[in-house]
Amino acid sequence: MATLKKNQEKSFSTIGLRSFITVMAILIAVLIFSGVLSYFVPQGSYERDESGNIIIGTFEEKGVGGIAPWRVLTAPARVFASGDGITIIMISLFLLIMSGVFNLLDKTNGIKIFIGKIIHRLSKRSSAVICICVFVFMMFGSFFGMFEELVTLVPLVVMLTLSMGMDTMAGLGACMLAACFGFSAAITNPFSVGLASEIAGVTTLNGVWLRVIFFGLIYVTLCAFLVIYIHRIRKKPTASLSYEIDLEKRKRADSIKIVPCAKNEFIFKVFAAFFGVQLIVLVLIASVRAISSYAIPILAFSFLVGGIICGLLVTEKKKDTFKYLLKGAVSMLPAIVMIAFASSVKLVMTESGIIDTIMNGVIKTLDGKGKFLTVLLIYFLILFLQIFIGSASAKIMLIMPIIMPICVALGISPAVVILVYCMADGFTDVIMPTNPVLLIGLSMVNVPYSKWVRWTWKLQLLVFALTILVLFFAVSINY
Fold this sequence. Notes:
By secondary structure, this protein is mainly α. It has helices at 17-37, 69-78, 85-107, 110-121, 126-144, 148-151, 154-163, 168-184, 190-200, 208-235, 243-249, 262-287, 289-292, 295-314, 318-331, 333-351, 355-366, 371-388, 392-409, 414-426, 436-444, 449-476, and strands at 44-45, 60-61. The protein has a two-stranded antiparallel ribbon. α16 runs parallel beside α19 and α18 packs antiparallel against α22 (449-476).
């Protein structure tokens, strides 16, 4: 997903300039390095079966070639006309549409009213409100890949928790942690599961049962963490890490009340119907084999048409609907550039004839090491890339085309690769200081990063241990 901006006039999916420059510098360096490798690594090729999977034992090595520099420089443009071009174009259009629709939902207050109304209906049930709030935010992250968009609701949820005798940290946990953990414990998240499934040539239904179980485990873990913390600070309020910060905030707790009026009620019903339809579409895509291969275009079309209809219904000036959609889509253009550069790495390696040689070397290195060790190495590779490349889609386009064939050749299913990617890609988004979304979310409610780390590091270790156990289970049953 793209990076959050403070400026409310801009789309919330606008990518920060510093983040864009950093990621682009890394991708350009990797692209140039892939070209340089062609002058040192011998060319080679595997035979492939009807599905395009490499056949072990058929590798044939050739001499060192070397790719022309102009081919490296033009790869980011030429990749759209390559064999992967259609997939890259579809993914790019999908991201533009999703960004446009999410911007529309934000600018029309659809997300705020939808979430806010649900929370307020539960405000008298303080014992259950946190768990239900966590479930709602995790569902949005897990099914629709919403994280940055939901972080904009941090002040709303924090003021709610304050009004119910809890603190700012509980509000951050119920909103920001929940949205991020839902994004990572993905069931049909189009930005991770959807894109990775498209590259792997499998449906989003593939391996979904374990992702559902993992979602449940993460949900229970986060709820238990928050409930235990809430009970502790209710017994001893000064134990709250945000105790002093919250003294002034409690006086403003009433500001979160959503004014009951016909317009807000109508907006709530419209967007409740919108998300209901999208869930139905996701279920159909996952369960109907005939359409599962077209998951990305179907989901993009459903979001676009549904978003336009909702926008026309709730906006006073109908032209605003298309203005918000266009601004949201334009804000995602830098991400498309990143995807083009990430995808071009595979193109350069393929054209220079070294990609199969590199795969052969990796396969030989991992052969006999065991599937679990291989999965762990992939896990830590993605964690390492996460430090520098926050965009889930950019990382997928960079490494999945290379990792997936290697794993299949070693007997590791695409479902395991998708699962390990989701686990490694997202959870650290809410602890890494290089993530601007985290820093902006904390700044919204005046919580220092040091206190946040002090509050969440044990939870992160627990989640890390849980992911390793689930991966071990997945490998042991040949998931």
